[in-house]
């Protein structure tokens, strides 16, 4: 079944039935204040850090799955009937329902009993607040006497503590209510100087701030006591569960419309001006009042919405394609880029599958996220690189994650992942290629956030490189450490204790198990570092990098090649993993993708051979699985990978993140047909047709699609926050369509399906706009040999960096085979 459709003109996905297979969500905010909102208004908000500055509460793994959020209730005061205009939580049958998820906003509209409601939720740029603009229209022939109730649940800031420490938290909650604004100030009396507020544009008939008074005894959000009786209780929370609910009476004549605005926000006061009057315990509201006033004003709200639209026009205009494939177009032009913004902001911390308390910003993940984000806001990419690099260990290794609020690294989700350091090199390379900003390499950056430890960023990359060279195993391959990109290939864990975390437990000293994947990644990163070193005039370093890369390639040929594909790793007994000699897990995707991307096997046919093996053993109609055969039992020497039932997650699931590696590899060997076919298999827009099988949102990539060994083959999971976003964006824009940023220019090297007659791309790059027309009259898959630039001819396929021009630069390229 279909649950909606794309509206490409408005850059929206329109959901037309509320009961989607899973909540289909969107993100609000893209700077410092963030919210997650589902198609039925579920979700929550936070400032910067989903764990440490959670504003509203959310209970995960609920039944129904998505329960709790930014709820409104409409009550007909003549009949006492009530409903939720966003369907949840009352789930009253609506005559019409529509949710439009757009770029940074969601609009939920519905009709019930002749009353139409349309609520736009968004975070204005530069603000730490969200607006709910609710427009109510009476389509009845008679006057409607309505009550509108709002409802949010305040979280007590630290989401982890909020969910566990009830003996304390039930006694700390505090609020103030002044002129209809509900201020949530738990812990403000002591060390916090921030508070939240919830305001409404209308004169209130009442309010509630104590959840259980609003809801009543033994009732949930379907039937709050205040809504049932049609009148708030004016409750003031002292401890227990601070809540925000306004009650507004709305009387509408036939045809009449009313706009009611709610503003939920976060504010920080100067530490020495927390209270007003000074010396009292009353919240100082002087600074926040003008902000509240501004966003309760319909004109200002309309302007802020328009500003948001213009902002996204600008971000998306960096790359726009018109190709024969509408799924590729809408993903590259709209949704994939948009998803890259979300992954850049959240890493893997807050979605409907990540609780916001489990993980901060991952070292490996955030570096890869840059690949899809850097072209949108390069300055933020630069700042992110600095933050990540400052957490790097002096050894060149990495804290696996850091908290966005404190920017400090920690080992909460494990440490010693030996691939981590190289992703920094690839992230920096992506930034410099996009911007040409070589100054970043000279920028002093701390190690381990220690003042005084600053070294130029280039030195960080050198340490990343040395980190591997200092950790070489018995075959000359890099030691894997806790794991490599595949967090679940835990070759040193040997875990036999129920519940023990595979990510934090190590029982072996880790001097034997090696990773062919890291070997490939090392070659890729070392080659990149060699170019960087040369540019910086460090030729000796460059030669050393190339020599070590060449040495590693030889080792890969000797111990990493299995005859028809690349081996994956060696375990703690020095036995191969991902080899024909294995009973299960004979072939893995990661080493095929990474080794070919590093250029290994391109000259002697091994790359093509490995890709044929992928096609033969791993490709399915829903994407390429991670390995085969799936592990049918738990192998203590393999760890978490064998903990999953066959076909799920790292155990032979279609781990979408690394499908693009194979796609890039296919473009490198010139196979445009296959590259595009693989891309389409995981493209959510193209998968919209699988509705109830796919289950996740058709507008964003999911981390995983169940593999062929799973009973639910084709079912997606963990949408939104996945490295798939950046990698697919990077792959389709730079490798398939082939408009590729390089240190010294823009390479035009499409590798496309033979049946395409051509395509057009507009690309903004280093101060210029390029209008690129690619023609394919002979049905080739590759082969741009020269370019026409503003009518003149350039040999080769690289556009040099031109001085900024006022007019777009016209480029023409032909695929000559
Ligand atoms: C998951 C991995 C993830 C890891 C993060 C594992 O349980 O399977 O996909 O990377 O946790 O800590
Ligand atoms: C998800 C993690 O966020 C990522 O870092 C890892 O590479 C993949 N899972 C594979 O395990």
Structural overview:
By secondary structure, the protein is α+β, with helices and mostly antiparallel strands. 27% of the residues lie in helices and 26% in strands. The strands form 11 sheets. Strands 1-2-9-10-11-12-19-16-15-14 form a 10-stranded antiparallel β-sheet, covered by helices on one side. A hairpin with a 2-residue loop joins strand 40 and strand 41. Helix 7 packs across helix 19, helix 8 runs parallel beside helix 19 and helix 16 runs antiparallel to helix 17. The longest helix has 21 residues. The model has no long low-confidence stretch (mean pLDDT 97). Beta-D-glucopyranose binds next to loops. 1-deoxynojirimycin binds next to helix 8.
Short description:
With 817 residues, the protein is an alpha+beta fold.
Helical content band: 25-40%
Overall spatial form: globular
Stretches where pLDDT is under 50 for at least 5 consecutive residues are: none
Largest sheet: 10 strands, antiparallel
Oligomer: single chain
Query: How many strands in all?
Result: 43
Mean pLDDT: 97
Secondary-structure content class: alpha+beta
Strand content: 25-35%
User: What is the radius of gyration?
Assistant: 28 Å
Question: What key phrases describe this protein's structure?
Answer:
alpha+beta, binds beta-D-glucopyranose, binds 1-deoxynojirimycin
Write the layout of secondary structure elements.
Blueprint: E1 4-7, E2 12-15, E3 25-28, E4 33-38, E5 43-47, E6 54-56, E7 71-76, E8 82-83, E9 96-101, E10 105-112, E11 115-122, E12 129-138, E13 144-157, H1 159-162, H2 166-169, E14 175-178, E15 181-184, E16 194-200, E17 206-210, H3 211-215, H4 225-229, E18 242-252, E19 257-268, H5 289-295, H6 298-316, E20 319-322, H7 326-346, E21 361-362, H8 363-373, H9 378-390, E22 399-402, E23 409-415, H10 420-435, E24 444-445, E25 455-456, H11 457-469, E26 514-515, H12 516-535, H13 539-559, E27 569-570, E28 576-577, E29 587-588, H14 589-597, H15 606-617, E30 619-620, E31 623-624, E32 627-628, E33 654-655, H16 659-668, H17 672-682, H18 691-694, E34 702-705, E35 716-719, H19 723-736, E36 739-742, E37 745-748, E38 758-765, E39 768-775, E40 784-789, E41 792-795, E42 798-800, E43 809-815
Helix pairs in contact: 7-8, 7-19, 8-9, 8-10, 8-19, 9-10, 10-11, 10-12, 11-12, 12-13, 12-14, 14-15, 14-16, 16-17, 16-19
The structure holds beta-D-glucopyranose (BGC) and 1-deoxynojirimycin.
1-deoxynojirimycin binds next to helix 8.
């Amino acid at each position: 079944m279909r649950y909606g459709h794309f509206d490409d003109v408005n850059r929206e996905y329109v959901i037309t039935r509320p009961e989607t297979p899973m909540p289909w969500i969107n993100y609000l905010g893209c700077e410092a204040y963030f919210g997650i909102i589902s198609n039925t208004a579920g979700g929550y908000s936070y400032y910067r850090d989903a764990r440490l500055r959670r504003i509203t509460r959310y209970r995960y793994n609920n039944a129904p799955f998505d329960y709790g959020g930014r709820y409104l209730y409409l009550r007909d005061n003549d009949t006492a009937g009530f409903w939720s205009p966003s369907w949840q939580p009352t789930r009253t049958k609506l005559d019409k329902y529509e949710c439009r998820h757009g770029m940074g906003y969601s609009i939920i509209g519905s009709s019930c009993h002749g009353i139409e409601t349309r609520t736009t939720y968004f975070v204005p740029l530069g603000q730490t607040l969200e607006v709910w603009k609710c427009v109510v229209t009476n389509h009845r022939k008679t006057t409607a006497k309505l009550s509108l109730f709002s409802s949010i649940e305040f979280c007590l800031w630290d989401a982890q503590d909020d969910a566990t420490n009830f003996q304390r938290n039930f006694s700390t909650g505090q609020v103030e209510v002044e002129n209809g604004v509900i201020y949530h100030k738990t812990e403000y009396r002591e060390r916090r100087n921030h508070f939240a507020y919830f305001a409404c544009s209308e004169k209130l008939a009442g309010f509630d701030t104590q959840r259980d008074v609003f809801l009543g005894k033994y009732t949930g959000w379907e039937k709050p006591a205040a809504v049932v009786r049609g009148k708030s209780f004016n409750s003031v929370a002292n401890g227990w569960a601070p809540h925000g609910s306004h009650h507004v009476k709305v009387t509408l004549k036939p045809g009449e419309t009313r706009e009611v605005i709610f503003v939920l926000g976060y504010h920080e006061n100067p530490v020495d001006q927390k209270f007003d009057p000074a010396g009292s315990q009353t919240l100082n509201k002087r600074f926040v009042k003008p902000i509240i006033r501004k966003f309760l004003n319909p004109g200002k709200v309309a302007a802020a919405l328009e500003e948001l639209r213009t902002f996204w026009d600008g971000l998306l205009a960096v790359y726009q394609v018109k190709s024969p494939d509408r799924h590729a177009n809408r993903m590259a032009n709209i949704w994939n880029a948009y998803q890259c913004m979300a992954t850049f902001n959240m890493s893997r911390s807050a979605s409907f599958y990540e609780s916001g308390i489990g993980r901060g910003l991952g070292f490996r993940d955030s570096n890869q996220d840059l690949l899809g984000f850097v072209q949108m806001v390069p300055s933020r990419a630069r700042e992110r690189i600095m933050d990540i690099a400052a957490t790097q260990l002096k050894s060149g290794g990495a804290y696996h994650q850091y908290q966005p609020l404190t920017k400090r690294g920690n080992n909460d989700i494990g440490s010693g992942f030996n691939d981590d350091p190289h992703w920094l090199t690839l992230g920096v390379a992506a930034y410099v290629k996009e911007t040409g900003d070589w100054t970043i390499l000279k920028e002093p950056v701390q190690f381990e956030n220690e003042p005084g430890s600053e070294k130029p960023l280039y030195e960080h990359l050198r340490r990343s490189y040395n980190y591997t060279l200092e950790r070489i195993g018995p075959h000359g391959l890099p030691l894997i450490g806790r794991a490599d990109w595949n967090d679940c290939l835990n070759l040193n864990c040997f875990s036999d204790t129920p519940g023990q975390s595979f990510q934090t437990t190590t029982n072996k000293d880790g001097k034997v198990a090696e990773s062919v994947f890291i070997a490939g990644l090392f070659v890729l990163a070392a080659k990149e570092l060699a170019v960087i070193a040369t540019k910086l005039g460090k030729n000796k370093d460059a030669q050393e990098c190339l020599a070590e890369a060449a040495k590693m390639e030889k080792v890969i040929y000797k111990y990493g090649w299995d005859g028809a594909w690349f081996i994956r790793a060696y375990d703690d007994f020095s036995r191969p993993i991902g080899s024909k000699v294995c009973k299960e897990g004979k072939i893995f995707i990661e080493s095929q993708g990474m080794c070919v991307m590093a250029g290994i096997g391109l000259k002697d046919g091994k790359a093509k051979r490995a890709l044929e093996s992928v096609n033969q053993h791993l490709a399915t109609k829903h994407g390429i699985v991670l390995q085969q055969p799936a592990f049918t039992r738990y192998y203590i020497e393999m760890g978490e990978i064998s903990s999953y039932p066959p076909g799920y997650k790292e155990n032979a699931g279609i781990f979408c993140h690394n499908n693009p590696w194979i796609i890039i590899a296919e473009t490198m060997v010139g196979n445009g047909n296959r590259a595009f076919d693989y891309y389409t298999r995981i493209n959510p827009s193209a998968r919209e047709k699988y509705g109830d099988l796919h289950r996740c949102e058709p507008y964003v990539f999911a981390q995983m699609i169940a593999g062929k060994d799973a009973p639910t083959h084709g079912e997606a999971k963990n949408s939104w926050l996945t490295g798939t976003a950046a990698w697919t964006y990077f792959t389709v824009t730079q490798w398939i369509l082939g408009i590729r940023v390089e240190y010294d220019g823009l390479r035009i090297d499409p590798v496309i399906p033979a049946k395409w007659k051509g395509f057009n791309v507009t690309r903004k790059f280093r101060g210029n706009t390029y209008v690129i027309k690619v023609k394919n009259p002979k049905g080739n898959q590759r082969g741009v040999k020269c370019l026409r630039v503003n009518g003149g001819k350039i040999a080769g396929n690289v556009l040099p960096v031109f001085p900024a021009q006022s007019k777009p630069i016209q480029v023409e390229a032909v695929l000559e085979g």
